[in-house]
Structure formats: structure tokens, C-alpha cells
């Protein structure tokens, strides 16, 4: 069995429905041809650590939820495909899903799938290259 090498970054609005976030996460994985078993975990911003949708996806996929501070995510801004001034104004970093995936993937990691959006959530996928 191959070691997991992908990081799934997720972002969502407060009160996002768990099913919406799960459908988005599943879509990104399916579109990339990646199984949940290929993931090292679910990654997001610490402001969403206790968000029911984040917890639900983590539990459904049986993966750890790891959250980073806005300051840590902001360090990924030069690597983002879709930086957002609006996101920065809301949470203090220029992206959550892409930045969280890249933070988890490490300095040599790269995005496999840039930010994909639903009505109230975002998802991105990165591959680790350690």
C-alpha cells in the first residue's frame, strides 16, 4: 500500500452545511482521481477548527483535521494560484484552501488542483514532495 502523499485543503463560511463541504471535497478528489486513502489529512485555518462541516468531513473520510493560523497560511501567498483580497479582509490570509494544502505539503509540495468553490466552501489539493 502506497504512503499517502496528498493534502486536502478546505475552507468554508461559518455555518456551512456539512453535506456541502463533503460534496465539494469528494468532487475535488474524484476529479483528480485521488482516493481518501491517498490523503495525509484535511487542512484548514484554525478559525474553522470547531466548525461542524470541517469535523464532519474529517470524520467521514477518517482523516485528521489539522488547522493552521492565518499567519502560517499567509506565508503561502506567493505560491497561491487564486489569492484573494476579500479572504484576507475576512480572515487575515490571502487564501485558505490552497494555502492550507500547500502548508501541509511542505516547501517542495505543489498544487494538483487549485481552489474549487461551492456556494459556501472552497477546496484545493496539493501533493507532497519531501
TrEMBL record:
<dbReference type="GO" id="GO:0032259">
    <property type="term" value="P:methylation"/>
</dbReference>
<dbReference type="InterPro" id="IPR052553">
    <property type="entry name" value="CbiG_hydrolase"/>
</dbReference>
<dbReference type="GO" id="GO:0008168">
    <property type="term" value="F:methyltransferase activity"/>
</dbReference>
<protein>
    <submittedName>
        <fullName>Precorrin methylase</fullName>
    </submittedName>
</protein>
<dbReference type="InterPro" id="IPR036518">
    <property type="entry name" value="CobE/GbiG_C_sf"/>
</dbReference>
<feature type="domain" description="CobE/GbiG C-terminal">
    <location>
        <begin position="7"/>
        <end position="126"/>
    </location>
</feature>
<keyword id="KW-0808">Transferase</keyword>
<dbReference type="GO" id="GO:0009236">
    <property type="term" value="P:cobalamin biosynthetic process"/>
</dbReference>
<dbReference type="Pfam" id="PF01890">
    <property type="entry name" value="CbiG_C"/>
</dbReference>
<dbReference type="InterPro" id="IPR002750">
    <property type="entry name" value="CobE/GbiG_C"/>
</dbReference>
<keyword id="KW-0489">Methyltransferase</keyword>
Amino acid at each position: 500500500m502506497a504512503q499517502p502523499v496528498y493534502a486536502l485543503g478546505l475552507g468554508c463560511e461559518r455555518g456551512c452545511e456539512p453535506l456541502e463541504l463533503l460534496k465539494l471535497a469528494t468532487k475535488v478528489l474524484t476529479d483528480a482521481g485521488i482516493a481518501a486513502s491517498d490523503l495525509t489529512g484535511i487542512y484548514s485555518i484554525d478559525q474553522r477548527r470547531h466548525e461542524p462541516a470541517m469535523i464532519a468531513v474529517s470524520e467521514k473520510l477518517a482523516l485528521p483535521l489539522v488547522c493552521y493560523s492565518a499567519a502560517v497560511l499567509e506565508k503561502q501567498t506567493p505560491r497561491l494560484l487564486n489569492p484573494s483580497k476579500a479572504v484576507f479582509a475576512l480572515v487575515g490570509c490571502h487564501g485558505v484552501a490552497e494555502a492550507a494544502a500547500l502548508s501541509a505539503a511542505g516547501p517542495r509540495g505543489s498544487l494538483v488542483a487549485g481552489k474549487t468553490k461551492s456556494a459556501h466552501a472552497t477546496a484545493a489539493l496539493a501533493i507532497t514532495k519531501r
